[in-house]
Amino acid sequence: MLGLTTLGTFHTAAGLVAMAAGFVALVRDKEISSGNRIGKLYVILTLVTVGTAFGMFPHGFGKPHALGILTLVVLLVALAAEYGCMFGRFSRPVGTVSYSATFLFHWIPAIAETTTRLPSGAPLFHDPEAPGLQMMFAVLIVLFLVGARLQTRRLSAEQRGPPALRTAPEGRCKSAQNLNVQVNPGMEE
After folding, report:
1. What is the pLDDT of residues 43-70, one digit of tens each?
2. I want to staple 103 with a disulfide (CB 3.0 to 4.6 A). Which of 21, 22, 37, 69 is the partner?
């Protein structure tokens, strides 16, 4: 079927379900977060998709491998931002935009593989480097940038809103502004 191996079929199915989960999260929650079921499904299937991709390109290191590594790095940044203290008060925006970037990364091979395989026997593009395909990627990047800006504006507005409507700091990290804890209350400097 379209020249896909068993691994390729599994990889494609996992990637499509990950993309669907990411789409649902973005529409429903306006962001992807591993803090809910749909976000956890997205993260797990993104890892499966990247992992299976490494087994599908045996002809040495190439662009698919680089995209897979980039996806893993950005996914780790998103998880670190969501659950760690590395980015302080910027953790939520960094995590949100990073998850969205991984969603973009799913679309790049999905469009490249689809347009160079379909329609069967006469694909839309014969080469992943075709100018028309590169233009599609440019449009994807613009859409990502617009979406990332909308996400960061929404998060900023949530933090500026009335205290009752502000979102609580997420993850395990609470910025120093949000904690009024004295380490040694009885000791003075």
Report:
1. 999 999 999 999 887 778 889 899 999 9
2. 22
Tell me, yes or no, whether 182 lies in a domain.
no
For residues 149 and 146, give the distance between their C-alpha atoms in angstroms, rounded to a whole number: 5
Total of domains in the chain? 1
Is 175 part of a structural domain of the chain? no
> How far is the C-alpha of 84 from the C-alpha of 78, rounded, in Å?
10
What is the signed CA dihedral for 62, 63, 65, 68, rounded to 10 degrees? Answer: 180
Exposed, middle or buried by CB within 10 Å (0-12, 13-18, 19+), for 21? Answer: buried
Domain that holds residue 43: 6-162
